[in-house]
Design a protein that fits this description.
The protein is of the alpha+beta class. Helix content is 48%, strand content 15%. Strands 1, 2, 3, 4, 5, 6 and 7 form a seven-stranded mixed β-sheet that branches. Helix 3 runs antiparallel to helix 4 and helix 4 crosses helix 5. The longest helix has 23 residues. The two termini are 42 Å apart.
Amino acid sequence: MSEISSGADLAVEWAEDPDLDLGRDGDEAAFTRLVEPLRRELHAHCYRMLGSTHDADDALQDALLRAWRGLARFEGRSSLRSWLYTVATRTCLDIVRSRGRRALPVDLGPASDRAVIGDAPLAEVAWLGPYPDAGLGDGPADPGARYEQREAVELAFVAALQHLPGNQRAALLLFEVLGFSAAEIAAMMNTSTTSVNSALARARKVVAQKAPSATQQQTLRQIGDARVRKIVAGYSAALERGDADALVALLTEDVTWSMPPLAHWYRGLEAVTDFAVRVPLTGCGSWRNLPVSANGQPGLSCYLWDDDAGAHLGWSVNVLTLRGERIAEITSFLGADHFARFGLPASLP
């Protein structure tokens, strides 16, 4: 089923779907068939709302359970897609109220001028996490959407969303990413159209301040796939060889490098070079890397040699933000738990 069908068309299609009656009667397999085509986009919506794949997993599972229990009350006056987004959004808003927002190191304090050796993870911080974008389309999910699907999971955009209250976050996503009207959103969020428009205005102002005007999708198209692959390969080779000069040649003057869940981060060539030389290039050991796509951006999955295991073990998923043909931001999400979510091997022999 096309994701860009109109709400009216979808409502008719769902109303005529025999699985809808079967699902209302308690047929779990029929319900699964109904929601399966929408599962991927609903999961992406939950990630945008919550900034964590783990939270998105929990939210989607809870939302689908709520939908299953409430399907008998779905009357088909809107599309099932709209109704499921209503359930998913309200589920995410419950989580936002109980858990607060997700952060990156740049949200916690100023950059460090020199490498911090022995930096310890901050377990008490709810960290923003990377998103495996396999399966996301390149264009908008709806004709009325402003953002493309991949633009809407870019790190800068998702990080900016975390600075919004839940209702503003939901309104912005439903309107500009998913193409719902203000009236539809008001019904979904049980509020007025005036309140939705007010939330949209405030949300747009914050996002404009926090996120760059040029998206990574625009930058990547300008650079071209071949050049992007060359940049990633060069970054990978510099890490594996411990080649500081080759690494520096790929970076912008104001480059930043952060490593959640570590609090310290670095800005500018001098500070980033000092960190790179003293920690990943000489202080960690042998690296092997595989290219990866995360948050609609190029990246690298990094494996570090472990003597006890006799293998390179998954260490971090590095998401690269490009400006021109150079790397402007490196966000290294540390933790072996990220690898399974990306379908990556836990180790490289």
